[in-house]
Amino acid sequence: MSRPGTSTRPVPVRAGVTGALAMCGEIDRPTTLTVADLREQWEQHEADVVFDCATNGPQHHAFTGPLLREVVGDAGPAFDPRRRKDRSRFLLAVRGGDGHHTVLSWAEIDADFGNTPILLATCLDGQDLDAVGSQLVVPSDRCGARYISAISSIWIGACRVPE
Asked: pTM for the complete prediction?
């Protein structure tokens, strides 16, 4: 169930736009964003990271991009801003172009809780990602499993606890 003004329907990716990601779920402003949008509309942050890749061993990379919390925050998550704890019920499901996906909690990225500087990378090792799509970067992770390439969608919504 969504509050008035929010949408749970998927947002179609712009036809013919490579590397676009759809933001949908319990948000006020469902949208589709390109890597260029992510680069031009939000402050860019840098992260030099090292993580273990199960197939390729240790990886060392420099990423640039906006903070996930700023991009998703601008989409208007449907939590009650007057109730701080309400934010901690929300999850983000991030899907890549290859079908790989992960789930994060809003509390991980919220400045009042975990404050983890997770990026939606627009640049990898000095190369723009416009042609392949943005990448989820979790600098605090030792394992690279939550580094999602070619992000195709981000769903935001509340976790419903079974009765």
From this structure: 0.86
